[in-house]
Design a protein that fits this description.
By secondary structure, this protein is α+β, with helices and mostly antiparallel strands. The protein folds into two domains: 46 residues; 161 residues, Periplasmic lysozyme inhibitor of I-type lysozyme (Lipocalin), CATH 2.40.128.460. The chain has an eight-stranded mixed sheet, with no helix packed on it. Strands 1, 2, 3, 4 and 5 form a five-stranded antiparallel sheet that branches.
Length: 230
């Protein structure tokens, strides 16, 4: 076998050159490892904020499923865009002849949902109660009536008009419930000089019934049978 001819100074100390060669290779491996780790770290730094931003853009609550007395399914979903007090509400159905899939943008957040048959026709409606964020707590109703389970139609919920005696002293803080096959709305009555935290006029109870209209179903306030509660 031919003898190895070491270049330059290695002719005098081959073992030293072997150790230098090993050390140089190890340094090269370490440099490659550091470069790879740096690349991965930069990728995580770039992707991380994007994913976090996407998760903060909107928060979707788990869809809630409601079953009518005839076995039909109504699914309600709510999404809260980041930094906003309003919500997007999706309503979709399953089991109807013509299913609904509708998105309602810029709505107050959902505070309650009721399934009830207010008109007694044997087919449940759904009443989605929404309440404004903040100290007022103004409530409204997003309702849908069944057209004999062929489809759902929106229910008109009347706005509050200036001069309506039903809302004298009204400043929000609504609560809703179903009672005796009626939709009941209650709120405190404010007298002149009352603060938001301390209404002194007692409470008012408004009772809504469901009636067919010319084009849509309507919730209407029925005549009061009892005076305002103290």
């Amino acid at each position: 076998m031919a003898a190895i001819r070491w270049p330059g100074p290695c002719r005098f100390d081959p073992q030293l050159c072997i150790e230098d060669y090993k050390a140089e290779n190890m340094n090269g491996i370490l440099r490659l490892t550091r470069n790879a780790l740096f690349t991965v770290a930069m990728s995580v730094a770039a992707v991380g904020p994007v994913l976090a931003s996407q998760s903060r853009d909107s928060a979707t609550e788990v869809p809630k499923t409601y079953r009518t007395n005839t076995g039909k399914t109504i699914i309600v979903s709510e999404t809260h865009p980041a930094g906003r007090s309003l919500s997007s509400i999706e309503v979709r159905t399953e089991g109807f002849d013509h299913n609904l899939e509708e998105m309602f943008e810029d709505r107050d957040p959902i505070s309650d949902v009721f399934v009830a048959d207010l008109d007694g026709n044997g087919f449940d409606e759904i009443y989605i109660i929404t309440t404004s964020a903040g100290s007022g707590g103004y409530g409204t109703v997003l309702g849908f009536a069944s057209n004999k389970d062929k489809s759902l139609s929106m229910i008109h919920f009347p706005d509050i008009h200036e001069g309506d005696e039903n809302f004298d002293g009204y400043m929000g803080h609504d609560t809703f419930k179903i009672e005796n096959q009626k939709l009941v709305r209650m709120f405190p009555i404010y007298k002149k000089g009352d603060t938001n935290e301390k209404p002194t006029g007692g409470k008012r109870k408004l009772i809504y019934g469901l009636f067919p209209g010319e084009a849509v179903w309507q919730l209407r306030i029925e005549p009061a049978k009892t005076p305002d509660a103290p």
